[in-house]
């Protein structure tokens, strides 16, 4: 059998030796030598993973997909050789992990960007939004990006141009057309449903019944300010040149997988093609600014 999916609930709770056995992961050696390549993610219930697994089987690559229930554990598991590669995060998240954990996990291939968008119930453009109070996510990963969405929309001016992760304190309120109010990311949809404009994470749109196409503005994936939010395949430096891992990353770009990703994202995911060297340069810049 070429494909096995492991529900890694135990791995999300404890990175103990017992968990290693439970996940069927034997440390040591090159990935794929004498066992499957172990891939960690947090969204393995999505159809694209089944499409991807079928392609890997056709290629004769033995894989084991390990599902994690939280966002920090897949990087911990990778750093501790419980898995060989993971695919669940963007470069900004990876940079924060590496700096906070003194780790050196490395991106090897880009996948897609999920644009972050501004919504305003009953409106289909930015017309009339001047003077409004806009809710934005207050978590460290998305707050700065949300502010830059408003910068790109011409609604907010920063005291210093080009900040990758600005905070509300960086906003020049007198020069801006709107004000911002940080709230819990899960509450942004509720603010929108009350009739107020809000920047809402892609993951909260479906559960709130909000059509992504109703966005009145979203960040441009080709803009430099969006680079930190490129989603990536990530591995350790020792495996950064592993041919089978790179082949798996290439399979994710297969049209059948990309079609499934687009369907799962409600039409919002945008495929990204950046070289391994470009991704590392972006990561290095993000880590430098975070230190």
From TrEMBL:
Compartments, as annotated in UniProt: Membrane
The keyword DNA-binding appears for this protein: no
Pfam families, per database record: Lipoprotein_9
A single cellular component GO annotation: membrane
Membrane topology label: Lipid-anchor
Organism domain of life: Bacteria
PROSITE patterns per the UniProt record, alphabetical: PROKAR_LIPOPROTEIN
Keyword list, A-Z: Lipoprotein, Membrane, Palmitate, Signal
Record InterPro entries: Lipoprotein_NlpA
Claim: Signal is one of the keywords in the record: yes
Residues in the signal sequence: 1-24
Family: Belongs to the NlpA lipoprotein family.
Protein name: Methionine ABC transporter substrate-binding protein
Organism of provenance: Corynebacterium yudongzhengii
